Amino acid sequence: MNDLCVDIGYKSINHEGEQLCGDHVDVVEQGENSVVVVLADGLGSGVKASILSTLTSRIISTMMAEGLTVEDCVETIAATLPICSERGVAYSTFTILHIVENREVELIQYDNPLVIMIRDDVNFDYPKTEINVGGKKIFKSVIKLKENDLFVAMSDGCPHAGIGKEYNFGWKRENIADFMETISPAGYTAKTYSTILVDECNRLYGGKPGDDATACVVKVRKRMPMNILFGPPSNRDDANRMMALFFSKEGKHIVCGGTTASIAARYLGKSVKAGITYDGGDVPPVAQIDGVDLVTEGVITMSKVLEYAKDSIAENKLYEKWSYGHDGACMICRLLFEEATDINFFVGRAVNPAHQNPDLPINFNIKMNIVGELSECLKQMGKKIKVSYF
Q1: Which one of 40, 252, 299, 378 is least enclosed by Cβ atoms within 10 Å?
Q2: pLDDT tens track, the chain, 390 positions
Q3: Using an 8 Å Cβ cutoff, are 347 and 388 in contact?
Q4: Cα–Cα distance measured from residue 304 to residue 269, given in angstroms and rounded to the nearest whole number
Q5: Whether 275 contacts 327, CB under 8 Å
Q6: String of b and e for 252-280 (b: at least 16 CB within 10 Å)?
Q7: Residue 90: how many CA atoms within 13 Å on its side-chain side?
Q8: Pick from 242, 248, 228, 230: which is nearest to 337 by CA?
Q9: Total domain count, the chain
Q10: Cα angle vertex 248, ends 245, 254, to 5°?
């Protein structure tokens, strides 16, 4: 096993006037270090396209994850989906990225714009082999992965952007490749790259997309462990064991909560230095402990992190707020969302007496719910999560 992993992010915009998107992305894990990503573009737009693309992506991703061939997948789709009365075909176009043991990617492409690959910040012309499956021309490629490789899969709504407005013939694939070359050195997450690309498509459409447009980005990066300590243990006698396990872990260390910070400082033989800067927002100031990468307040700060996490896996509208903010929640977001690949939560079950005031909207269950919901959001971002309770 190498120390590489993949960061996967995607975003869609709907055809103007449609409630449902005719594109669909499915991500299915295949063991510890392999994953199948499918972007399907249903014929037309609206409900029919949404059903076609959802079924297509779900069937392909499930079958590929179980080890079946692309030939089996295409035959199953043709036999399973209803025939479109207008076009006489039974399935959508699709792009498959099969990441194998984080060592190589197998690309299988049918009628979608060809995947753009950025390597060393320039467009890389990867080899393609043409095969015929059920009378359909499909391109296959197998590429060894390198750190910082960027794969951009998209539906045809992206190169169609700007037709008759910004461009006579749309925003061609080579133009999109140039655009991705320009932003690739920034080191963004896959979700942010896909958001930037789709937002640019929306701008070229004048805010009124003439087609569903989806971008799915796969970024290859090195594993980066992160450790977060949240709350003191229910049994005081477990404090030293909890701290020993927490600080023995590789990677950066985040401590959340005043009491938790005091226990961590005592264990390290250091003192807690209170923060003196406050930006006037609703998140308390951060503190400092020598040997700890970040020290923040507990429940209020983590509630804000959860709010940002929910937005990040949805519309990603708050990206600029947490990516440039200076409060504790924004700092945690940058560490967890952008830097981390593997996150270890060390969660204390102690009940904070200050939280038992009936006038405060904070209780033990809320704290546990934050950890549970945040873990789920981070998993959807592709992070490996482990939660240990004390």
Answers
A1: 252
A2: 578 999 999 999 999 999 999 999 999 988 888 999 999 998 878 888 898 899 999 999 999 888 888 888 888 887 777 766 666 665 688 999 999 999 999 999 999 999 999 999 999 999 999 998 877 889 999 999 999 999 999 999 999 998 876 665 679 999 999 999 999 999 899 999 999 999 999 999 999 999 999 999 999 999 999 999 999 999 999 999 999 999 999 999 999 999 999 999 999 999 999 876 666 678 999 999 999 999 999 999 999 999 999 999 888 889 989 999 999 999 999 999 999 999 999 999 887 665 555 555 555 578 889 999 999 999 988 899 999 999
A3: yes
A4: 30
A5: no
A6: bbbbbbbebbebbbebeeeebeebeeeee
A7: 12
A8: 228
A9: 2
A10: 85
The pair of three-digit structure tokens given for residue 292, joined into one six-digit string:
């700890």
230 and 214 share one domain: no
Q: Are strands 150-154 and 213-222 parallel, antiparallel or unpaired?
A: antiparallel
Give the helix/strand (H/E) hosting 325.
none
At residue 384's C-alpha, the angle toward residues 61 and 73, to 5°, is 5
User: Do residues 161 and 229 share a domain?
Assistant: no
Within this chain, do residues 148 and 265 fall inside the same structural domain, yes or no? no
Terminal Cα distance for the chain, rounded: 31
Instruction: Identify the residue whose tokens are 């947490």.
Output: 322
Q: Containing domain of residue 92, as a range?
A: 4-222
Q: What is residue 6's three-state secondary structure?
A: strand
Which of 156, 190, 222 is at the close of a domain? 222
Verify that 232 and 268 share a domain, yes or no. yes
